[in-house]
Design goal:
Helix 1 links the parallel strand 1 and strand 2. Helices cover about 30% and strands about 25% of the residues. The chain has one domain: Rossmann fold (3-Layer(aba) Sandwich), CATH 3.40.50. The protein is an alpha/beta fold.
């Protein structure tokens, strides 16, 4: 399963979530790019899931042709310790993502 981690604060998840082909927006030269570029590249590069905290990707327009799902992380505080505590829920969110759909992992609930 090919997963794109969009924000730099999510990059460590690439190493922590084994079993996925995790790539980062920064590593692909997409750091700082707008939502339409991220969406287009995610489709063109055949990602299965895009993991993000960017609200502009939470309700994206033009979902026709999506080949990936979006997992929106609404986790506070957004730091390594809290993300590590939520690894099982993030993994489940990735595995449950469906093409053309946005799902959310919230903490605190």
């Amino acid at each position: 399963m090919k997963v794109l981690f969009v924000q730099p604060e999510l990059e460590f998840l690439k190493e922590r979530l084994s079993g996925f082909n995790g790539l980062t927006a920064r590593g692909m030269g997409l750091d700082g790019k707008g939502p339409s570029t991220i969406m287009r590249e995610s489709r063109d590069m055949k990602f299965d899931v895009v993991v993000t905290t960017d609200r502009s990707l939470r309700f994206p327009m033009g979902s026709e042709g999506w080949t990936f799902g979006i997992l929106f992380l609404e986790i506070s505080p957004l730091d390594e310790a809290t993300l590590t505590e939520q690894l099982d829920r993030i993994r489940s969110g990735i595995l449950g993502a469906r093409a053309g759909e946005v799902s959310t992992v919230r903490w605190p609930r």
